[in-house]
């Protein structure tokens, strides 16, 4: 296990003016373990405690309670040893806007202990990997969001860490750049680097990670592989629009093939396995009950359905 | 530790080298003072020539760069508390004091170079100085810069807001200038003004600078100024490194 955390908690004391303070429990007890070579995602809405969790694991913030071992060392007592073995790319990126990206890259490589010539070789290698060679000597402020993000990633990898933390790596990127970054994260895993990333994008967690935790209000609400989590809910989901949601829910819950129903806004979501075959029966049941359907759709269950099941709200609304 | 400080210093100097315009702007103010204000003093100083006026006025003008340059250097760091640069460096292998120390040394070097240029202007205007006095003056500038820059980074990390920092530094800049006797020696003023000046660190550097420019290298103001700035510099450096540690909350 490259990360093992037990009971991580973080309480901030926030000033509320006139000398009054308020305790804010950002993280309220998180256990997680990440295996070597794994892409592990922390999925949750904004304010769920994802960034605080990553900052504790990366030795930036000291936990209020709990312990964590990262790359074989305790994050509090042996922070220096942990720092040698991790790369950390914050949400803000952390690339100096005023200098050319190559300079930031060289500085990071040299700080990790490389000699001048080794640092140049490492920088050239990373610039090549992330297709940054041509823009390496331009001030970073003149680059696009996607290019900056690639520089941030390259700088995080300068010390060849076996583990990289990526905090919201694709926030603010366009779909093309997001897809490229996903490929880059996958190729990190292919080279044996472990990755812990946070995201509030369901599709990102679904497409990218081997395992994930879903967090809400500083606590883990679900943990597992994307497939297993979705199976727990059901294979498919039927979304119905009709007038009497409560009556329809009651009627559908009585059907043997329906696992669960859940009202959401003005729709009813009915979870079931093997949706293609059960849909005609569902339609017949509603018709027999005299329910007029305004619209109906059948989809695969997503991680949002997992989130909805555990928290009672949709991740899209939870932000 | 030393290696990391040098790496940060090298990185920062690289940024200065790519953008050398700003430090040059920094010396515009003292140079204008030398050209346009010092001649006004000729009638008021003992001796009554421009060179006599320069001898008294140049040290104060040089300290202006320390005040209006180095004390504002922390602004760059406020941005770095937000754009993730400090966050990244804090979890890198970098020795933390080196992050501040490398920047402070860059500011000290820039300040010494600016001081050389200002002195060059004074020399062109006719001022002549012995080399030891010149060397000591540059060292004094470096010591002043150590204090002013560390204080500025400490303020930046404590306030973390451009508006607040700008208000605070502006608020203190004028009284510090006047109470240091940068324009005219404080000794011309009443007793209470002289007492108040003793609480202003810059007063000691201006006084020591005047002693050096008067060729009085062994004057007690010189070791006092070095002592004041080394102690204050160390304290403000320690404070800013501590503020850096508290960044994480």
Automatic annotation (TrEMBL), chain A:
It is found in: Cell membrane. Residues 3-242 form the ABC transporter domain. It is a peripheral membrane protein. The keyword Cytoplasm does not apply. Gene3D superfamilies: P-loop containing nucleotide triphosphate hydrolases. Pfam families: ABC_tran (PF00005), DrrA1-3_C (PF13732). GO terms for cellular component: plasma membrane. Its main location: membrane. One of its GO terms (molecular function) is ATP hydrolysis activity. GO terms for biological process: daunorubicin transport; doxorubicin transport; response to antibiotic. Keywords: Antibiotic resistance, ATP-binding, Cell membrane, Membrane, Nucleotide-binding, Translocase, Transport. InterPro entries: AAA+_ATPase, ABC_transporter-like_ATP-bd, ABC_transporter-like_CS, ABC_transporter_ATP-binding, DrrA, DrrA1/2-like_C, P-loop_NTPase. Belongs to the ABC transporter superfamily. Drug exporter-1 (DrugE1) (TC 3.A.1.105) family. This is ABC-2 type transport system ATP-binding protein. The lineage of its organism: Bacteria, Bacillati, Actinomycetota, Actinomycetes, Streptosporangiales.
Automatic annotation (TrEMBL), chain B:
It is found in: Cell membrane; Membrane. Residues 21-247 form the ABC transmembrane type-2 domain. One of its GO terms (cellular component) is ATP-binding cassette (ABC) transporter complex. It holds the Pfam family ABC2_membrane. InterPro entries: ABC2_TM, ABC2_TM_bact-type, ABC_2_transport, Nod_factor_ABC_transporter. GO terms for molecular function: ABC-type transporter activity. One of its GO terms (biological process) is response to antibiotic. Keywords: Antibiotic resistance, Cell membrane, Membrane, Transmembrane, Transmembrane helix, Transport. It is a multi-pass membrane protein. The chain crosses the membrane at residues 21-44, 56-78, 108-127, 133-156, 168-188, 222-241. Its main location: membrane. Belongs to the ABC-2 integral membrane protein family. This is Transport permease protein. It comes from Streptosporangium canum.
